[in-house]
Amino acid sequence: MAQASVTETRQSSWWHRNQQQLTPWLFLAPGILFFLFYVIFPIFQSFNLSLYEWDGLGQAEFVGLYNYDELYYDDAFYTSLKNNVIWLLLYLLAIPAGLFIALFLNQTVTGIRLYKSLFFFPFVISQVVVGLVFTWFYDPTFGILNVLLGAVGLPPMNVLGDENWVTVGIIVAGLWPQTAYCMILYLTGLNAVDPEQIEAGRLDGAKGWRMLWYIIVPQLRPATFIAFVVTIIGALRSFDLISVMTNGGPFGASRVLSFYMFEVALSEYGFRMGYGAAIAVVLFLIMLAFIAYFLWSMYKEERAR
User: Residue 220 belongs to what domain range?
Assistant: First the structure.
């Protein structure tokens, strides 16, 4: 009995000694387990599946790097990759647009709450709704776009039916809610801007663009980092707007890698799970490269301080 009592006392004292360090990990454990099971494990599973030819039901056949070799000669893959690059370049316009809208809304003027609500509205509605709204906006028969073009003497155009304009048209639709998201990030960041630095800048004669570029923007680095990462991920994994507005058309001209992955794995292309996984791996590596670059840039900036 005495030995058992000593053991319990030791265990109790060990818990009391380490309770402060262990408690946060106990709270984090469920989230970490979910992250490992639903994010990390599927990533490795996709890498493994990309080495097989599998229809989702039958026996998987190991084919090594054949799926990647086929990707190398696949014109549809290069079309999707090109569209992803266009998405990436144009989608980044949401960041400066969100910043300037946030600067406008970060004022005390009459009706500012109404303006904030109007700019915030696109963020809370579904991407499917955004896609439907812009599909009607671009409609060649009754769409508002052609009404506006006619008002200034320009000929009508079928944006979603034109191979040269369809990707740009979908990106414009995606910029609407993404700009609202970046605006929210910057509004939050502007609330944390040090007023003493602004006052010191005014005393030194800084105003307008100089005030913005040298004093305000450097203090918004955390918000800018999050905006870049989220916008890049959103551009590379764009799917729902394409599915709603064009379903990859016309003639596959608006495909991106995520939509092409869905087509080859789960659509009319024949349930090629391995080939779809190979596309997913390529998309994941592109995302990883961009995010690693921004993380490394942030790390170097912090080390330089």
Answer: 62-304
